[in-house]
């Protein structure tokens, strides 16, 4: 029996220098906006540009450590997973990122976009 091996397709979206340290940059895709975040240690993460609470633009939030705080209601989101930090509950979609040299690429075909709202706690779905 032959097995099918799916190779990850990486789409170059720019340079790490295009993303401010402790800041973000938005990449527009057919499936929605993706926010790229850069930490103080030059780590790069990609999340759906929508807070799981009320869809606030995470790209306009404050990056601190490996988290971003939503500018609308101060929800704190883990950059690596898209998960809201307790006591809030919810998740925004995340996209695999690859940095080679200064080049940043996304695996858009493997994006885990939520297109959803908060779970349980707030009732704002």
TrEMBL record:
Q: Which SUPFAM superfamilies match?
A: ISP domain
What range(s) does the Rieske domain occupy? 10-106
GO biological process entries: nitrate assimilation
- Record InterPro entries: Rieske-like_NirD, Rieske_2Fe-2S, Rieske_2Fe-2S_sf
Return any one Pfam family short name: Rieske
GO molecular function, one example? Answer: metal ion binding
UniProt EC number: 1.7.1.4
Q: Which UniProt keywords apply?
A: 2Fe-2S, Iron, Iron-sulfur, Metal-binding, Nitrate assimilation, Oxidoreductase, Plasmid
Tell me the enzyme class: oxidoreductase
Segments traversing the membrane: none
| Protein name, entry field | Assimilatory nitrite reductase small subunit, Ferredoxin
Q: Which organism is it from?
A: Azospirillum lipoferum (strain 4B)
């Amino acid at each position: 029996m032959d097995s099918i091996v799916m190779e990850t397709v990486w789409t170059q979206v720019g340079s790490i220098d295009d993303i401010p340290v402790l800041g973000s940059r938005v990449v527009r895709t057919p499936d929605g906006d993706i926010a790229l975040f850069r930490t103080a240690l030059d780590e790069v993460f990609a999340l759906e540009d929508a807070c799981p609470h009320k869809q606030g633009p995470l790209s306009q939030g404050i990056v601190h450590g490996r988290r971003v705080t939503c500018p609308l209601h101060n929800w704190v989101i883990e950059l690596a997973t898209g998960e809201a930090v307790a006591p809030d509950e919810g998740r925004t979609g995340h996209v695999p990122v690859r940095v080679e040299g200064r080049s940043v690429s996304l695996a858009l075909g493997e994006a885990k976009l939520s297109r959803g709202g908060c779970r349980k706690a707030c009732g704002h779905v």
